Amino acid sequence: MKIGTVDLGERPVMLAPMEDVTDASFRLICKEQGADMTYTEFVSADALVRNIAATTRKLHIAEGERPTAIQIYGREVGPMVEAAGIVAEAKPDIIDINFGCPVKKVAGKGAGAGMLRDIPKMLEITRAVVKAVDLPVTVKTRLGWDCNNIIITTLAEQLQDCGIQALTVHGRTRSQMYTGEADWTTIAAIKENPRFTIPLIGNGDITSAQKLVEAFDRYGVDGVMVGRASIGAPWIFREMTSLLREGAVAEVTVAEKFALLRRQIHESVERIDEKRGILHIRRHLAASPLFKSIPNFRPTRIAMLQAATLAELEAILDNIEYEILPNL
Fold first, then answer.
1. Does position 14 have pLDDT exceeding 70, yes or no?
2. Among the residues of 133-178, which ranges form H helices?
3. Distance in angstroms (rounded) separating the CA atoms of residues 279 and 275
4. Burial track 107-144 (b if 16+ CB lie within 10 A, e otherwise)
5. Could you list the active site residues?
6. Reduced to 3 DSSP states, what percent helix, strand and coil does the chain have, rounded to the nearest 5?
7. Is the pTM for the entire model greater than 0.90?
8. Are strands 6-7 and 2-3 parallel, antiparallel or unpaired?
């Protein structure tokens, strides 16, 4: 599968863009674990234009994580075009436009999935961004605004005609947010349109290696994007790609999983500082499946998520890894 000149190989597996999750460290770890492509946290076009430091820092890409897309969002043509130019200077492999974020602070203001209520503006922004940069431009969106407005099969062709070079579809409407089941049948219907010829990437509810393989085999997508299932579990890419390409799920030991989480913690602290780095990593610790099989874990979980220093957090993890888990 190619996006412009970016060759991702056959049946690529991508790390989805996720706010406060897909920082540079996490992207690199997921790449090392088998992700074929990574996406940055989404970047506000308005904040880029205003040169907000916290936003411009998101543009940093490590060579080891490539190919990487920087994802931008906004609701007006001018700022989106200007932001695309700024992003192009950071030299990502691809620029992705977010027309899928469902959260109120984004969609409620007309950006992200809010664009599903203004298709002419969505298409105008897409055409303008494609024209403004020399890099491949892609789009990530949803099925429609709500169940009464499932428009993706028509919209996919319209976006393609704007010049994008791949389309990612999350199999839910904006109104669903992240509830219910992702509708992969409607994603598959996009491929039935003979006029739709660019790569189609499916997203939603890919939580295991088996579901990944099913997405390719049953729904015929060209690529699959993995999001929430990777939070606190970057090794899921090793499990997925091994089943996809070797026919068996690679065994990732508990020790290896702990090592990856500890690496995330340390790199988060090094990148920011101890206090904020630990706050940032709590989302990964809270979501990690590594702790979900431990009985009577609630007090330890609370202590882990309330740890205020690196030393305190390390001591709790040591207790879990060397004392609790071996006795299960």
1. yes
2. 152-161
3. 6
4. beeebbbbbbeeeeebbebbbebbebeebbbbbbbbbb
5. 101
6. 50, 15, 35
7. yes
8. antiparallel
